[in-house]
């Protein structure tokens, strides 16, 4: 069951997986329209291996508060949530992972607090978004004219109806703040690369993606790994969410990287 913690004046929904013997701390940041439940397969596996794991619903998503602040959904604010939550729970030099849009948030959190993190893993993400910009621009226009319920029927129902997580996807969609959806869509379209700043922090980085990732260009992810002098791991028989498609292999790749540092 989620805990609720006041961060920047508003409650965020948090899930922590506690190990019996704690060897290190890990923070996992979900992507666009996602939630903390995106990690409920790998979270327990990591805890079994000794990692204390924190994940949460990004501000305005699923069970977290709909922000009333003017800058609540700005990238700096979302990145600050990651840092402040980690501090609140006493995480010490945690490993940071960002999935998809969460990778952009994680990159900003790493750049803004470079001494705070032990490492950064970028999972199915990139320095900026590029693959489906035209489609996303069209969706953003629709978001401004349809309610969340109407948009679900128009767009998400067809995508998610065959998923075993259909009920979760529908619930979190309807609970999420429509302003969060539009503002994070704009961030996907507008966020510029911070790879040069990230490289300057010298935080050990790791690039991972599923061999069938269809959301972020694989050549872009390969180039990002080169630019960061980062090892690259490709998860076989996985798409955009290796954490759900191949949780055991994803955990193996993560822990191999962390233990190598």
From TrEMBL:
Species of the source: freshwater metagenome
Chain ranges of the AB hydrolase-1 domain: 26-253
Gene Ontology CC annotation, any one: membrane
Keywords for this protein: Hydrolase
Entry keyword annotation includes Hydrolase: yes
Name listed for the protein in its UniProt record: Unannotated protein
The keyword Hydrolase is assigned to this record: yes
PANTHER family with a match to the protein in the record: AB HYDROLASE SUPERFAMILY PROTEIN YCLE, MONOACYLGLYCEROL LIPASE
InterPro entries named among the record's database cross-references: AB_hydrolase_1, AB_hydrolase_fold, AB_hydrolase_sf
UniProt GO MF annotations: hydrolase activity
């Amino acid at each position: 069951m989620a805990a609720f913690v006041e961060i920047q004046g508003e409650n965020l929904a948090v899930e922590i997986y506690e190990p019996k013997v704690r060897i290190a701390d890990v923070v996992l940041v979900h992507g666009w329209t996602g939630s903390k439940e995106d990690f409920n397969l790998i979270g327990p596996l990591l805890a079994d291996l000794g990692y204390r794991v924190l994940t949460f619903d990004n501000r305005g998503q699923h069970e977290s508060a709909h922000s009333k602040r003017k800058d609540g959904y700005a990238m700096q604010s979302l990145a600050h949530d990651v840092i402040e939550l980690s501090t609140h729970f006493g995480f010490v030099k945690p490993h940071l992972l960002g999935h998809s849009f969460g990778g952009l948030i994680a990159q900003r959190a790493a750049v803004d607090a470079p001494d705070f993190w032990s490492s950064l893993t970028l999972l199915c993400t990139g320095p900026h978004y590029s693959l489906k910009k035209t489609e996303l621009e069209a969706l953003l226009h629709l978001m401004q004219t349809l309610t969340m319920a109407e948009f679900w029927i128009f767009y998400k129902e067809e995508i998610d109806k065959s998923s075993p997580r259909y009920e979760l996807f529908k619930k979190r969609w309807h609970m999420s703040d429509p302003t969060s959806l539009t503002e994070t869509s704009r961030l996907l379209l507008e966020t510029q690369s911070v790879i040069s700043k990230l490289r300057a922090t010298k935080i050990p980085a790791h690039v991972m993606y599923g061999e069938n990732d269809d959301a972020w260009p694989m050549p872009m992810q390969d180039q990002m790994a080169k630019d960061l002098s980062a090892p690259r791991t490709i998860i076989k028989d996985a798409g955009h969410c290796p954490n759900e498609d191949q949780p055991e292999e994803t955990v193996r790749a993560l822990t191999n990287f962390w233990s190598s540092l």
